[in-house]
């Protein structure tokens, strides 16, 4: 049989493969709420502008409500023959209310319809990520508050570099998450334009009111160019770019959790709620959630590259290629949602072993820079000379298997006669972090003022 929506000029129905390659209902049914909201706003506007009778509008609105109930309760029979969510709903509407259903598609095309549904979906996902990022930031700030004074090794090249505080480390992730939040809000702001009414590609001759539908659907204003509107997927690309960067941050945090929770590091213990056991090794507690968060960029980066590749070189305006925009965006939404929620939960529950962190902070001659700085400050040495003297001190201590602070004063004096007893006060890890008071540095007082600043900003929004 030929198609119920466009069968007029068709003598036969589609090949089975045609139907299979063409159908998107298996995944775009996820857009049913948005599709129904869009159709209701469109019908209301058509009635207000005199294109549709009030009776038809009421029948359409009620029918759409019935369909929403059927889909929500799982009682709706989705059909691949009806291709996508738009035609599944419209065909069901015709079954329910008869000929009035055929008037709903006046002054509209599936091209502006799908652009609307998809944009609404991405926009509300981003709004949920705003809230998710705020919760994540809150968990990090709470940890930072508890550990403004907790000393741990700071790393470069994953080698012990200089002591830092765990609070400062948490705040590094707050900075990343805050940039993610700002990218998220920025993208919402830019996509806040309503596609409905662009019609197939050229607009319509009916006296529609696009400002009315834009407002009804919660957009700031309608889009300005009908050709661009039906062929634009920047909003989805921007979501994916935001998601890829955010997931990258979460994967770095996850990697640190994986490393830090090994017995060799022992900096953190994951809660039972965020670990798994082994079916053979009874002693095991594995950081599976952290590993999965670490892996999510595989899917999300894939989605970004996939959609960029689908869109590149497409001539204006709509092409069916663009139907390939949805599945991976949906997957990226779900993946990022899980990654963010699991990261927030892990941070919130994680036990910090302050003693293990402090012990590790003292290893690896982490206060060598403090000794060099002391020589510059107290003995007037140029930094490069101070660096050399300190390097020799480290070599001697290392040969004896002791720390810098354990070197007798006479040995230090042999390296540079101006060294005095006072030098020992800068060689502890606590003194080291306390001295790093430069703006943005790791000193506990800096950490506390940064926390206060972020608390104020997040609460103020
Ligand atoms: N399912 C289609 C999509 O996702 C809807 C738009 C179809 N428009 C068309 N002219 N074939 O893009």
From TrEMBL:
Q: Where is the Fumarate lyase N-terminal domain?
A: 8-302
Concerning PROSITE patterns, the annotation shows: FUMARATE_LYASES
Q: In which pathway does it act?
A: Amino-acid biosynthesis; L-arginine biosynthesis; L-arginine from L-ornithine and carbamoyl phosphate: step 3/3
Return the EC number.
4.3.2.1
Kindly list the places in or outside the cell where this protein is found, as annotated in its UniProt entry.
Cytoplasm
**Keyword Cytoplasm appears in the UniProt entry:** yes
Query: Which reaction equations make up its catalytic activity?
Result: 2-(N(omega)-L-arginino)succinate = fumarate + L-arginine
Alphabetical list of Pfam families matching this protein:
ASL_C2, Lyase_1
Q: Which coarse location class applies to the principal site listed for this UniProt protein? A: cytoplasm
Q: Which domain of life is it from?
A: Bacteria
UniProt-listed PANTHER family? ARGININOSUCCINATE LYASE
The family note in this entry says: Belongs to the lyase 1 family. Argininosuccinate lyase subfamily.
Q: Could you tell me what this protein is called?
A: Argininosuccinate lyase
């Amino acid at each position: 049989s030929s198609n119920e929506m466009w069968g007029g000029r068709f003598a036969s129905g589609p090949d089975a493969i045609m139907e299979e390659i063409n159908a998107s209902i298996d995944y775009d049914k996820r857009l049913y709420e948005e599709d129904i909201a869009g159709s209701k706003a469109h019908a209301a506007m058509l009635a207000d502008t005199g294109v549709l009778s009030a009776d038809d509008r009421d029948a359409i609105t009620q029918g759409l409500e019935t369909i929403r109930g059927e889909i929500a309760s799982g009682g709706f029979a989705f059909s691949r023959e009806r291709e996508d969510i738009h035609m599944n709903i419209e065909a069901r509407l015709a079954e329910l209310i008869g000929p009035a259903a055929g008037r709903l598609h006046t002054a509209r095309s599936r091209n502006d319809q799908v652009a609307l549904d998809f944009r609404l979906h991405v926009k509300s996902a981003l709004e949920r990520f705003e809230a998710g990022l705020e919760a994540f930031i809150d968990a990090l700030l709470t940890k930072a508050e508890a550990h403004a004074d907790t000393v741990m090794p700071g790393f470069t090249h994953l080698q012990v570099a200089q002591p830092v505080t765990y609070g400062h480390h948490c705040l590094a992730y707050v900075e990343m998450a805050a940039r993610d939040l700002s990218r998220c809000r920025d993208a919402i702001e830019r996509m806040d334009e309503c596609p409905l009414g662009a019609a197939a590609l050229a607009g319509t001759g009916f006296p529609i009111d696009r400002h009315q539908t834009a407002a009804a659907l919660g957009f700031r204003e309608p889009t300005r160019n009908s050709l661009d509107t039906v062929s634009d997927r920047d909003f989805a690309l921007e979501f994916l770019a935001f998601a890829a960067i955010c997931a990258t941050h979460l994967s770095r945090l996850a990697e640190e959790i994986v490393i830090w929770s090994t017995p060799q590091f022992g900096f953190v213990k994951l809660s039972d709620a965020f670990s798994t056991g082994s079916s053979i090794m009874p002693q095991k507690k594995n950081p599976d959630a952290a590993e999965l968060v670490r892996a999510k960029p595989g899917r999300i980066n894939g989605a970004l590259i996939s959609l960029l590749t689908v869109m590149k070189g497409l001539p204006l305006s709509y092409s069916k290629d663009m139907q390939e925009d949805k599945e991976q965006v949906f997957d990226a939404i779900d993946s990022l949602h899980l990654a963010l929620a699991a990261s927030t939960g892990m941070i919130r529950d994680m036990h910090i072993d302050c003693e293990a962190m402090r012990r590790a902070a003292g290893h690896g001659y982490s206060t060598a820079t403090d000794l060099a700085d002391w020589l510059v400050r107290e003995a007037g040495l140029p930094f490069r000379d101070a660096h050399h003297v300190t390097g020799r001190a480290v070599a001697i201590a290392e040969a004896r298997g002791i720390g810098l602070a354990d070197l007798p004063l006479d040995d230090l004096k042999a390296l540079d006669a101006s060294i005095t007893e006072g030098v020992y006060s800068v060689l502890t890890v606590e003194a080291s972090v306390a001295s790093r008071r430069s703006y943005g540095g790791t000193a506990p007082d800096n950490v506390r003022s940064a926390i206060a600043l972020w608390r104020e900003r997040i609460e103020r929004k």
